[in-house]
Amino acid sequence: MTIDDITYIGQQAMIVTLLAAAPMLIAGMVVGLVISVLQSVTQIQEITLTFVPKIIAVMVAFVVFLPLTSEVMLDFVRELFDGINLYITAR
Fold first, then answer.
1. C-alpha dist (Å) from residue 44 to 33, 34, 60
2. What percent of the chain has pLDDT over 70?
3. How far apart are CA 38 and CA 48, in angstroms?
4. Among candidate residues 28, 49, 29, 25, the one with its CA nearest the CA of residue 39
5. CA distances from 76 to 14, 66, 79 (A)
6. What are phi and psi of 69, to 5 degrees?
7. What's the rounded Cα separation, in Å, for the pair 51 and 3?
8. Which of the four pLDDT bands, split at 50, 70 and 90, describes residue 6?
9. What rounded mean pLDDT belongs to the chain?
10. pTM
11. Domain interval for residue 81
12. Whole-angstrom distance, CA of residue 47 vs CA of residue 23
């Protein structure tokens, strides 16, 4: 296994992590932004008001994007398992 192989695997792992987490993070960020704007417009400064909608939005995004997320992760794992013989024997 060369340093190029290790760098490639690390790079792919970071990309897969970003692709898998992005839908939930974006959903939470958008809902948080909308709630913050509504709080500033209505001058309701209740800190706990943001938690429940964010949790619901993240859970809905998780369920909706689960097929895409699992496909991205499975492709990465398949690529790792397909190349494991090459990674072990290449010295």
1. 15, 13, 26
2. 98
3. 14
4. 49
5. 11, 15, 5
6. -65, -45
7. 43
8. confident
9. 89
10. 0.77
11. 3-89
12. 24
Give the chain's domain count: 1
Transcribe 5-55 into DSSP letters.
HHHHHHHHHHHHHHHHHHHHHHHHHHHHHHHHHHHHHHT---GGGGHHHHH
Q: Which helix (H) or strand (E) holds 59?
A: helix 51-82
Between CA 90 and CA 4 the distance in angstroms is: 11
Looking at residue 91, what is its pLDDT?
Answer: 55
Interval 25-39 mean pLDDT: 92
CB 23 within 8 Å of CB 59: no
pLDDT tens column, 38-64: 888 888 877 778 888 899 999 999 999
